[in-house]
């Protein structure tokens, strides 16, 4: 609570701050203010998890080393949240049980646009404040754009650990900025202050996401090659499996035929005797 008072989210829309702060300063303060707003959720969900575990509801079983696990109904993973390198990774580790419920009742059942429908249902589930709807509609753009970018460029950065590390650092920075930018209306609740904030950023991330979705990048040649290499190997495995089944079937047929001939010979011998 002390940290959140030191970096209030509302200061992002302060007139003097918007007029005098440089853009890098705005980025840094945005990240700090939203990071400071999360501990109250961490406290509430961790306390609820402790109560459920005390009642035995959170026991998931033992691993192969005999270590017990008590995360069956955990609602967050703090380190995964703070060090998430993608929008999806953040959402997968935040409010986990609600996300699983939304996945079961909406995402897996939607006949079209499951991502959009799930975000809209999530906004309705949270309440009636306009800021919730601004956040989740922005989240739709962020999720779809991030998915498109990751699918097209990630393959370029997997060749070496050093390049992969640089990629992870860059995606961590962009993810934290995107998350902070997205959830400001969730904290401010109303339309006017949310509009003031987004206009101070010139709706830059909204525009970037729309451009990515309007002009999707072509899939990388490397990604295509990897996909092509996967498909033949999968087909080869299918063929090998089919051959094994055929060989097994033929072996069974030969053995069965041999047994039948042996039985017939035995009966003929017995008849002659």
Automatic annotation (TrEMBL):
Q: Point out the signal peptide segment.
A: none
Q: Name one GO biological process term.
A: lipid modification
Recorded source organism is Ophiophagus hannah (King cobra)
User: Which residue stretches does the UniProt record annotate as biased composition, category Basic and acidic residues?
Assistant: 237-246
Alphabetically ordered keywords of this record = Acyltransferase, Endoplasmic reticulum, Membrane, Transferase, Transmembrane, Transmembrane helix
Q: What's its membrane topology? A: Multi-pass membrane protein
Q: What is a GO molecular function of this protein?
A: acyltransferase activity
* Pfam families from the UniProt entry: MBOAT
Give the matching PANTHER family.
LYSOPHOSPHOLIPID ACYLTRANSFERASE 2, PORCUPINE
The record's region (Disordered) falls at 224-249
- Please report the name of this protein according to its UniProt entry: Membrane-bound O-acyltransferase domain-containing protein 2
Cellular component per GO? Answer: endoplasmic reticulum membrane
**Superkingdom of source:** Eukaryota
Q: Which residues cross the membrane?
A: 131-149, 169-189, 195-215
Q: Where in the cell is it found?
A: Endoplasmic reticulum membrane
């Amino acid at each position: 609570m002390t940290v959140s008072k030191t970096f209030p989210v509302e200061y992002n829309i302060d007139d003097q701050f918007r007029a005098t702060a440089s853009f890098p300063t705005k980025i840094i303060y945005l990240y700090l203010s939203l990071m400071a707003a999360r501990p109250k959720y961490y406290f509430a969900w961790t306390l609820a998890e402790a109560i459920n575990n005390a009642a035995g509801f959170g026991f998931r079983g033992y691993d192969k080393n005999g270590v017990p696990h008590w995360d069956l109904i955990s609602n967050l993973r703090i380190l995964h949240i703070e060090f998430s390198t993608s929008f999806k990774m953040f959402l997968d580790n935040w409010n986990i049980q609600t996300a699983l419920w939304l996945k079961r009742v909406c995402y897996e059942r939607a006949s079209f646009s499951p991502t959009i429908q799930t975000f809209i249902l999530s906004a309705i589930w949270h309440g009636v404040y306009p800021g919730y709807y601004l956040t989740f509609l922005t989240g739709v753009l962020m999720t779809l754009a991030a998915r498109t970018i990751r699918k097209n460029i990630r393959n370029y950065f997997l060749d070496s650990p050093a390049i992969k590390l640089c990629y992870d650092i860059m995606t961590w920075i962009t993810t934290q900025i995107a998350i902070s930018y997205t959830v400001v209306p969730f904290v401010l609740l109303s339309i006017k202050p949310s509009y003031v904030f987004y206009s101070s950023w010139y709706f830059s991330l909204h525009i970037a996401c729309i451009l990515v979705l309007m002009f999707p990048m072509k899939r990388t040649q490397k990604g295509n090659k990897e996909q092509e290499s996967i498909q033949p190997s999968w087909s080869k495995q299918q063929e090998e499996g089919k051959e094994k089944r055929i060989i097994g079937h033929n072996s069974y047929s030969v053995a069965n035929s041999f047994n039948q001939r042996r039985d017939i010979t035995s009966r003929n011998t017995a008849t002659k005797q």
